[in-house]
Amino acid sequence: MMKKRKKNLKGFTLAEEVITVILIGILIVTATGILMSAIRIFSQNVISLNAQARGIAVMDQLTDNLTYAKKLETVNSTSAFSTDAANPCSYEMILYPETTGDNNSLSSNVRLKYVSGNTWQTPVQNKLCQLNSYEVEYNIEANGSFAVIKLEVKRHGKTWYTEHRTIELKNDPLNGSTFTYTSTGGEYLYIGSLE
Question: What's the whole-model pTM score?
Answer without folding.
Answer: 0.80
